[in-house]
From TrEMBL:
Pathway: Amino-acid biosynthesis; L-lysine biosynthesis via DAP pathway; LL-2,6-diaminopimelate from (S)-tetrahydrodipicolinate (succinylase route): step 2/3; Amino-acid biosynthesis; L-arginine biosynthesis; N(2)-acetyl-L-ornithine from L-glutamate: step 4/4. Pfam families: Aminotran_3. Homodimer. It is an enzyme of class 2 (transferase). One of its GO terms (biological process) is lysine biosynthetic process via diaminopimelate. GO terms for cellular component: cytoplasm. This is Acetylornithine/succinyldiaminopimelate aminotransferase. Its EC number is 2.6.1.11, 2.6.1.17. It catalyses: N-succinyl-(2S,6S)-2,6-diaminopimelate + 2-oxoglutarate = (S)-2-succinylamino-6-oxoheptanedioate + L-glutamate; N(2)-acetyl-L-ornithine + 2-oxoglutarate = N-acetyl-L-glutamate 5-semialdehyde + L-glutamate. N(2)-acetyl-L-ornithine binds at residues 141, 280. The modification N6-(pyridoxal phosphate)lysine is found at residue 252. PROSITE patterns: AA_TRANSFER_CLASS_3 (PS00600). Belongs to the class-III pyridoxal-phosphate-dependent aminotransferase family. ArgD subfamily.
Amino acid sequence: MSLKISRQDFDRFMIPVYNPAKFIPTHAKGSIVWDQDGQDYIDFTGGIAVNVLGHAHPILQQTIQEQTSKLWHIGNSYTNEPILRLAKQLINATFADKVFFCNSGAEANETAMKLARKVALDVFGKDKSNILSFNNAFHGRTFFTMTAGGKSDYSKHFEPLPKEIQHGSFNDMQSAVQLINKNTCAVIVEPVQGEGGVIPAKVAFLKKLRELCDKYDALLIFDEIQSGVGRTGSLYAYMYYGVIPDILTTAKALGGGFPIGAVLTKEKLAIVMTVGTHGSTYGGNPLAGALGSKVLELIKKDKIIEGVAERHVWIVEHLKKINKDFNIFKEIRGLGLLIGAVLNEDFKNQANNINILASEFGVMVLVAGPNVVRFTPALNISKKEIELGMQRFAKACASFIQNR
């Protein structure tokens, strides 16, 4: 007999680094989630940009069942067919020649920066070690990636932090010019800042970073953990911008809900990472490989990316109508299905209150800082699900205004 579980058990048993919603989801299908009481919610979160094909996709279910009947885990003293198949697909679809697999976006970014440091040390010596990131960036929660991130709320509790990491102003070319020099080994940037407020990079800014990295023999790292695997309307956002990085990190949507991360790079850089310089116990396991491979296959076969722009318009039009009724947002921004609704000054620091209210009206949304409501739904979310979810979100906004 199983133990009855309640939301209070989280507060009793879990280390309190999260503050989850009052309800507990129990099952889901497509972009609809049900809780313990049978209440349904339209999911505009996509597991924080993870469930690229929604919940319980039948072909992904079949894939995981088939692979678990064959081989779950084998360790990296051996290789396996599913992960090599996924590596080929990623290489064929991108600029990369080589791939390293891990379990998460943080691990992928950690690996990317270690690779950049190793290249600089081997080729130029120990003085070329500076890494440039940007204010309000988010690159993960490991010590290294947290320091590279530009949000002090995440890092201030763990000082002193690793040295030789600088932060420039995002979308500010002059800031980049002042900070990138001969001692810079890498620049890490999100083409669209996700946690930092859903802020797309300017094309000219990314092109300037590419130019400066080439000038000073620094590596350009694109953190596409949140923007990758079709979310912006291109397989990876670098394709939209027309700026090719030296290293790209990907995770979240790549596994369609199953943990996987990857680092993509060119062969001339990859060769510095020789046997024993890096590794991951679970990274590159056959189960993750099978699911990642199937996700890429389905995105292409079902023309998922081609529908992203249309869904972007549907959601933005609904948000504009809500704004016309309640004058709650000063800006709606983002690319593809990575959308941020920025609150007016009158509602400063109230994004999470709207998030909580939304769940009470049967819709799941996210925040991106205290002033931005974020939407990262499945790329195949239906028009009907969007319309129902936006009706519920409008009611939440009405309640928010009425009860201030």
